[in-house]
Amino acid sequence: MKLTLKMKMRSLTRNKEWMLEQSMEEFKSCVNDWLNAIAQLREKPNRGNLHRFAYKRIRSEHPQLHSNVVQDAMNLAIEIYRSWLKKGGSFPEFHSDVIYFKGVDVKIENNGLVVPLMGERVYLPLYVPKKFKKYLQHKHGRVAIKRIGKDWYAFVSINVPEKEPIKPIGTIGVDLGYYNLLVASDEKGREVMRVQGDVLIKHKEHLERLTARRQQRLMKRFGTYAKTNHKDRKFVDDLNHKIAKELVLKAKQLNRAIVLEKLKGLKGQKRSKRLRKILHRWSYADLVAKIVYKARLHGVPVIFVSPRGTSKTCSNCGYYVKGFKNERVFRCPKCGFQLDRDLNAARNIAKRAFLPAVNGEASSPQRR
Ligand SMILES: [Zn+2]
User: Fold this and answer.
1) CB 28 within 8 A of CB 95
2) Which range marks the domain in which residue 24 is found?
3) Ligand 1 centroid vs 330 CA: distance in angstroms?
4) Model confidence over 109-125: pLDDT tens digits?
5) Can you give the pTM of this predicted structure?
């Protein structure tokens, strides 16, 4: 699978920074030259006809750029043009502070990159987080260097070989909510993991207090308010990382596939109030994405199932309790079974997945 590693550049010598700036400006004008060429081409541009039409000229106008960078500029121009065709508006111009390099033109060594800039090979030192080191041993692809504010960043795409997938002996159903962010259960109703939602509430309250104080100060000094959303996002991002990691490692340890509720694909059906609430308040989709991605890295299968009725169905006898509302404990009027409501839902989710290794090849996937 492909990963993109974002790494901050260490401070550069003035000369290197100048070379980078010059190259980036050059790249910008090169992309715009390609866009102008597309405007003159009078047929739909592709890598073949556009190259034949203008490569020689544009190449000679940008002698400082590596030939592969000139070609990458062309590919980018085609992409920009195509998205403009869809979106419309005035003819596109390229302004981004970025330059791309092909993987073969970049060497990764000594915690840095060696890239071709203005006819030289230039070493650019990076801050490489410890957890990235193992990824950097694999083959890298395209590299982008961007300027964000005053800082420079490298975006290195890496092809990481996926782990041999495990052969699961069972499933772990995952119920995501707000009261409990996550409750995971096996198909027998044994709790595997639980993350209570109050971490989020506590953090929100903490932030609100901080913000209120800050707002008061700002109001006094400048007569205005400020927004503080990024802290929230960072916290949720870190939290989701931790939750996803723990879940995937547990699944791997227990040799089980992860089962999640599918939120899309429920066409023509209203999302339940419960799901709407989650989707609204907390980046549910982000957690799901992180679980899926970490599971792939660790060879843990992920199965999506329909969310219909998972919290209103008895995980013991399958009875659907129509009037079940927001009580914390699920009680089945038919068989008398009782279980924490989220654990009951998680167990239903675990049972809903079809696993050939468990259910046998002959049986068909359970549908509801
Ligand atoms: Zn029951």
Assistant:
1) yes
2) 2-159
3) 10
4) 989 999 999 889 999 99
5) 0.66
Which residue shows structure tokens 């707002």? 215
Calculate how far, in angstroms, residue 313's C-alpha sits from the geometric centre of ligand 1: 8
CA of 187 relative to ligand 1 center, distance in Å: 15
For residues 241 and 220, give the distance between their C-alpha atoms in angstroms, rounded to a whole number: 38
Which pLDDT value is given to residue 367?
A: 41
Query: Does some domain include residue 211?
Result: yes
- Report pLDDT for 351: 94
**Å from CA of 266 to ligand 1 middle:** 26
- Å from CA of 198 to ligand 1 middle: 30
- Does residue 6 lie within any of the structural domains? yes
Give 317 Cα–ligand 1 centroid separation in angstroms: 4
What 3-state class would DSSP assign to 122?
strand
Cα separation values, 37 from 22, 30, 44, 287, 342, Å? 22, 10, 12, 43, 59
Between the CA of 342 and the centroid of ligand 1 the distance, in Å, is: 15
CATH number at residue 211: 3.30.420.140
Kindly give the distance from the C-alpha atom of residue 316 to the centroid of ligand 1, in angstroms, as a whole number.
5
> How far does the centroid of ligand 1 lie from the alpha carbon of residue 141, in Å?
54
Number of independent structural domains in the chain: 2
260 and 153 part of one domain:
no
- Say if residue 102 is exposed, middle or buried (CB neighbours under 10 Å; 0-12, 13-18, 19+): middle
Q: Which residues contact 185 (CB under 8 A, 6 or more apart)?
A: 172, 173, 175, 191, 192, 343, 346, 347, 349, 350
